[in-house]
């Protein structure tokens, strides 16, 4: 999906067509998971095609690419989980430079993997993307991505989990997804990858680092 950086940092609501397309895709995926009836399977597959056509109509993705993306999803449809780790040193936050977003910066993180706890997932991401070892100390926030102003919008519904982490060792390194890792002060942040993190989310990370007794943010 194309990126519109003119809306970065602002709260956004998914347009109706995206909400409908997600709902239709979820209905198709869940229906195909639970039925063996060939007639019902055909109907659910048609619903999936309609969802793909809606996404293709409003984005830069061809229908066959959307169908191929959806074909990888199986079982009961649920939101995807993105984990992000906030690691601090001297009141500066660790960010990594994304190779796939024109060198913009973000918190280390990504999709949680099967058979990992959320804490294990974010610790792994920090090590893989930044080269640092860390431990989780608290949950900063559980956010609905759509409600936080991320751009571009995504075909999937995503929950974003932010964790405050303590630095325990390691050194900066690159990965196949990142080309740099560094610590930044709150008033000297680099250009951010708004698909992954927003300025307001980083402000909350700084607030929780300075005042760990803050309650976990939600939604």
Question: What can you tell me about this protein's structure?
Answer:
There is one protein chain. The two termini are 24 Å apart. Helix content is 34%, strand content 26%. Strands 1, 2, 3, 4, 5, 6, 7 and 8 form an eight-stranded mixed beta sheet that branches. β1 (80-89) and β2 (92-98) form a beta hairpin. The chain has helices at 16-34, 38-58, 63-71, 118-130, 199-210, and strands spanning 80-89, 92-98, 105-106, 109-111, 132-144, 158-170, 178-184, 217-218. The protein is elongated, with a radius of gyration of 19 Å. It is an alpha+beta fold and 219 residues long. The chain has two domains: 14-71; 80-218, Alpha-Beta Complex (Nucleoside Triphosphate Pyrophosphohydrolase), CATH 3.90.79. The longest helix is centred in the first third of the chain and has 21 residues, at 38-58.
Question: Which secondary structure elements does this structure contain, and how are they paired or packed?
Answer:
Elements (H helix, E strand, L loop, with lengths): L15 H19 L3 H21 L4 H9 L8 E10 L2 E7 L6 E2 L2 E3 L6 H13 L1 E13 L13 E13 L7 E7 L14 H12 L6 E2 L1
Parallel strand pairs: 1-6, 5-8
Antiparallel strand pairs: 1-2, 1-4, 2-3, 2-7, 5-6
Task: Give a quick summary of the entry.
This protein is 34% helix and 26% strand. The protein contains five helices and eight strands; from the N terminus they run αααββββαβββαβ.
Comma- or semicolon-separated keywords:
alpha+beta, 8 strands, Nucleoside Triphosphate Pyrophosphohydrolase, 219 residues, 2 domains
Helical amount among residues, as a percent range? 25-40%
Q: What is the makeup of the main sheet?
A: 8 strands, mixed
Task: Give the strand tally.
Answer: 8
| CATH class bucket of the largest domain | Alpha Beta
Tell me, briefly, the overall form. elongated
Distance between the termini: 24 Å
Tally of structural domains: 2
User: Topology as H/E string?
Assistant: HHHEEEEHEEEHE
């Amino acid at each position: 999906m194309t990126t519109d950086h003119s809306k970065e940092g602002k709260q956004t609501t998914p347009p109706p067509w995206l909400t409908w397309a997600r709902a239709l895709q979820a209905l198709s995926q869940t229906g195909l998971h639970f039925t063996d009836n060939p007639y019902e399977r055909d109907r659910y597959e048609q619903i999936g095609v309609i969802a793909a056509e809606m996404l293709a109509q409003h984005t830069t993705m061809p229908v066959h690419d959307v169908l191929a993306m959806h074909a990888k999803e199986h079982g009961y449809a649920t939101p995807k989980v993105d984990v992000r780790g906030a690691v601090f040193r001297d009141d500066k936050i660790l960010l990594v430079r994304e190779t796939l977003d024109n060198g913009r910066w973000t918190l280390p993180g990504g999709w949680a993997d099967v058979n990992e706890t959320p804490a294990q997932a974010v610790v792994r991401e920090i090590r893989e993307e930044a080269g640092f070892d860390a431990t989780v100390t608290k949950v900063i926030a559980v956010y609905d991505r759509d409600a936080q102003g991320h751009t571009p919008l995504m075909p999937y519904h995503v929950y974003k989990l932010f964790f405050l982490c303590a630095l325990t060792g390691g050194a900066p390194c690159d990965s196949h997804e990142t080309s740099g890792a560094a610590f930044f002060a709150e008033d000297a942040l680099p250009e951010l990858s708004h698909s992954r993190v927003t300025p307001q989310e980083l402000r909350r990370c700084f607030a929780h680092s300075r005042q760990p007794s803050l309650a976990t943010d939600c939604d």
